[in-house]
Amino acid sequence: MLEELEQQYPTADSLQQHFEELYGARDRLYLDERHERIRLFETGVADLFDALRREPTADALNIPFARVVARIFSMANSIDGVKVSEGMMMKFPLGGCAYCHQSSCACTAFRSAPTLGTSFDTEQSKWPLRVWQQYLDSLYGTANAQKGIWFVTTRLAVETNELVAEEDKVRVSAPADIRRNYALEIADTMAWTMAAASLLGVDIQTAALRRFGLACPGCHSSPCSCSRHNFEPVKFE
Question: What residues does each domain of the chain span?
């Protein structure tokens, strides 16, 4: 079944579209403002932290990681024209780290502004999440391993604040700037999610497809027919 799902959703874009078809109508009804989607993402990150405190196996982490990925796609799908893959291509282009330009990041604490990619007509547009995770691990895996899982997951939590800050700028930003800046911020959330998953031995593509590839795990329907979203923390036994 997993192999069939991977063939059905061979790229990050096709998986993002799947989440729009699965949850788009429900999200528009019950999460009609972006800050609510950001808050739901934040609760997913908090649930991941709670799961990590219990030192679980990689298999036990599949569900909290899948939830985080789903909520990243929900944030992206709240803005017409924003694709997670395009933000990733801008922030993490082929050829090395956007900051130090090394094939394995050698950035120091004080780094210059990134050199953002400008072309979306590359092989990266065809990558599934798994290949993105592998690519980012080749760039940043060594540095992330030295800093440790709690540093990486804290960075993921920090991204929620940056998304909130971006939302505060919306009223004074042009539409093109809103799309571009959100794409970059959402790319960062996905990248830090992948970084944490790599350190913990979790393949986020497998996690997302097993959890959400066929239907909503709550109502077992596609598209989802659940009612309002639950913002309460997940109870881990």
Answer: 2-107+126-212
